[in-house]
Write a sequence for this structure.
C-alpha cells in the first residue's frame, strides 16, 4: 500500500513537472522580443575619423582581449599567437591584459575528494589558461589576467591565481592574476607605467559582494584614482574588468538570433541572470563604476564579457553632442568604454549599435591601446591580423 501511494505521488510530481515545462515553453514561444541585425562587418559612426599610425614617440601599449577560455595550447590559438607577435615588437613598452573568463566553462578544475592529481581532461582545461600565459613567455611582455564570471564558477579563483604564480616562477615570465590576495577581499589594484596607469578589478566579485564589501571596494577604487591623479597627473588611467558598463550585445538583451533569444527567455522563467546589464546586481556595479570614474582626468574603461569588439564614447560626451554648445553638461563615468571579449571564435556573438557607439563588429580579434604624448589611439585588429579601425581617444 505504501509503495502504491509513493508511486502515485511520484506520478503526480512528474505530471506537474511536465505541465510546468509545457507552460514554460508555451510562454517562451509567445514572448515578444526584437531580433536585430548584427554588425558582422565593421560599423563606424559617420562622424568618426580613422587615422594613420602616429609617428610621434610611443610611451606605452596595452593589448586588450577577453573571453579566451576556450583556447588551445596545441595548436596554439591563432589570436593568442598574434597577440604574442604584437607584444614582441616592443616588449619593454607593452602590457597584455586578459579581460576575464580565462577558463571555460567552470573555471580552474577542482580536485575531487580523494583525487591527488589532475586527470587528462582536467589538464586539457588547464592548458586553456597556459595558452594565454604563453603570450608572455614568447613575447617577453608583461601579462595580467583579471577574473570573470566563468572563472568564479569554480567557487573560488585561488587555484587559478596560484597556477599563474607557479607558471611565472617556472618560466621566468612576467604574468600575474589581479586583483587577488588569498583569504582577503579582492580590492582593485593598480600598476603605473610610462604615460598610463592600469587598474585591475574583479567585477564578478563586485556583482556578488555584500553591500558593505561593495562599498569598501568603491571607496578603495576612488582613492586609487585620486592618488594616481595626484602622483601621475599626466597619465591616462585605464581601468580594466570583465563586465562592461555599456554594451549592445546579448548581455543587454540585444539579440541577433531567435534561438538564443528563446533560450534566454526560457531560462528567465526559472532564474534571473546577474550577468545581464538590466538586473539589479549588475545595475549596482554600473552605478558604482560610473560614480568612481567621474573624475577630472582622462579615464578609459575596458572589459570583456560581451563576445564582440565595441568602442563607446562617454555618456558626458554623448550628452554634450546632443545639446547646444552653451549648455553645461555634467560629466558621467569614463571618457571612453571599450569592449574586447572576442578572443575566440567559438564565443563570438552578434552586436548592434546605439547613439554612443563609435565602432562595433562581431568578429574574433583584439584591441591595442597606444599612448603618445599628445593622446591615445585605439586599434581594432582581427584574428587574421587585419587592422579594422584606428582612431584617437582624446
Amino acid at each position: 500500500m505504501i509503495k502504491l501511494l509513493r508511486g502515485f505521488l511520484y506520478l503526480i510530481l512528474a505530471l506537474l513537472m511536465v505541465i510546468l515545462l509545457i507552460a514554460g515553453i508555451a510562454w517562451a514561444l509567445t514572448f515578444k522580443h526584437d531580433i536585430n541585425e548584427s554588425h558582422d562587418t565593421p560599423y563606424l559612426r559617420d562622424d568618426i575619423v580613422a587615422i594613420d599610425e602616429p609617428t610621434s614617440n610611443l610611451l606605452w601599449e596595452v593589448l586588450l582581449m577577453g573571453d579566451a577560455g576556450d583556447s588551445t595550447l596545441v595548436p596554439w590559438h591563432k589570436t593568442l599567437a598574434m597577440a604574442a607577435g604584437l607584444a614582441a615588437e616592443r616588449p619593454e613598452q607593452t602590457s597584455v591584459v586578459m579581460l576575464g573568463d580565462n577558463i571555460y566553462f567552470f573555471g580552474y578544475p577542482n580536485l575531487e575528494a580523494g583525487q591527488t592529481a589532475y586527470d587528462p581532461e582536467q589538464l586539457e582545461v588547464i592548458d586553456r589558461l597556459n595558452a594565454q600565459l604563453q603570450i608572455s613567455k614568447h613575447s617577453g611582455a608583461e601579462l595580467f589576467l583579471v577574473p570573470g564570471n566563468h572563472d568564479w564558477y569554480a567557487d573560488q579563483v585561488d587555484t587559478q591565481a596560484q597556477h599563474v604564480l607557479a607558471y611565472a616562477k617556472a618560466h621566468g615570465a612576467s604574468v600575474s592574476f589581479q586583483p587577488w590576495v588569498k583569504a582577503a577581499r579582492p580590492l582593485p589594484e593598480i600598476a603605473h607605467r610610462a604615460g598610463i596607469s592600469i587598474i585591475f578589478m574583479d567585477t564578478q566579485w563586485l556583482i556578488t559582494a555584500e553591500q558593505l564589501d561593495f562599498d569598501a571596494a568603491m571607496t578603495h577604487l576612488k582613492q586609487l584614482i585620486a592618488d594616481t591623479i595626484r602622483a601621475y597627473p599626466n597619465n591616462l588611467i585605464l581601468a580594466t574588468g570583465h563586465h562592461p558598463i555599456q554594451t549592445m550585445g546579448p548581455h543587454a538583451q540585444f539579440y541577433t538570433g531567435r534561438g538564443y533569444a528563446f533560450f534566454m527567455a526560457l531560462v528567465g522563467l526559472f532564474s534571473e541572470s546577474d550577468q545581464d546589464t538590466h538586473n539589479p546586481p549588475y545595475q549596482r556595479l554600473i552605478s558604482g563604476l560610473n560614480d568612481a570614474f567621474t573624475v577630472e582626468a582622462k579615464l578609459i574603461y575596458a572589459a570583456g564579457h560581451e563576445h564582440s569588439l565595441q568602442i563607446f564614447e562617454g555618456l558626458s560626451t554623448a550628452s554634450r553632442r546632443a545639446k547646444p554648445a552653451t549648455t553645461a553638461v555634467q560629466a558621467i563615468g569614463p571618457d571612453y568604454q571599450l569592449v574586447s571579449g572576442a578572443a575566440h571564435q567559438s564565443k563570438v556573438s552578434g552586436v548592434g549599435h546605439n547613439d554612443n557607439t563609435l565602432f562595433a563588429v562581431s568578429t574574433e580579434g583584439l584591441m591595442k591601446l597606444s599612448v603618445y604624448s599628445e593622446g591615445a589611439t585605439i586599434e581594432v585588429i582581427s584574428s587574421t591580423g587585419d587592422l579594422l579601425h584606428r582612431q584617437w581617444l582624446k
About this structure: Residues 100 and 147 are 4 Å apart (CA to CA).
